[in-house]
Amino acid sequence: MTQALTKPITVKEFLEWIPENSPKRYELHNGAVVEMAQPTGEHEDVTGFLNIEISAEIKRLKLPYSIPKTALVQSASSQSTYSPDLLILNKTALKLEPLWTNYSTVEYGASIPLVIEVVSTNWRDDYHKKLGEYEEIKIPEYWIVDYLGNGGVKFIGKPKQPTLSIYNLVDDEYQVAQFKGDDRIISFAFPELNLTAKQIFQAGSQPNQT
Asked: What's the rounded Cα separation, in Å, for the pair 96 and 106?
């Protein structure tokens, strides 16, 4: 990631600043505007695979959910907003979101059944910054899809290997379950989702198989 601006600004100023119809993605980190790095094709394949699989579950179960393309998540305690790789929203809760109509931005965990980050080189943001922020917002479920095994040893163990970490909110704190290889993932948000960790990790290099 590279900083687009250096002068600290507020969330409201950031939302007003974002160029309309820009192909670039931006986040605000403690008042600093950050331009997100262009994702690799592999990263996009993994994200796209998950989008298709989860969208199919939403349709099958007739859930009042949507997956927006460019929506943002606002921090509860800092001048920060994040652009998740995959954000599932509960449409029935959006009427209580003050920034949704004008800025496609949410701030309440009740609006977000699931948020997913696909790890790139900036893995510290996903495992440190966003993990704490999403917990504070009380998002019920957070996936970190580390398909290259880039994360720190304290997060994914040693030797490093591709790992899917699913954090569920229990008594306002995240509890983690990790899935590797042929492990079938267990999601509270989508309990009937029939996928293994390996299928997700290999989405960029092999035909989708479920």
From this structure: 9
How far is residue 73's CA from residue 80's CA, in Å, rounded to a whole number?
A: 9
Max CA pair span of the chain: 47
* pLDDT tens digits, 84-141: 999 999 999 999 999 999 999 999 999 999 999 999 888 999 999 999 999 999 999 9
Domains of the chain, each with CATH number or no CATH? 40-204 (3.90.1570.10)
- Tens-place pLDDT, residues 8-24: 899 999 999 998 878 88
Please name which of 60, 46, 39 lies closest in space to residue 121, comparing C-alpha atoms: 39
Task: For residue 120, give every residue at least 6 positions away whose Cβ sits within 8 Å of its Cβ, in sequence order, or none.
Answer: 37, 39, 40, 43, 150
Q: Could you give the CA distance from residue 102 to residue 133 in angstroms, rounded to a whole number? A: 23
Query: Which tokens hold the place of 175?
Result: 């509890």
Q: What is the pTM of this model?
A: 0.92
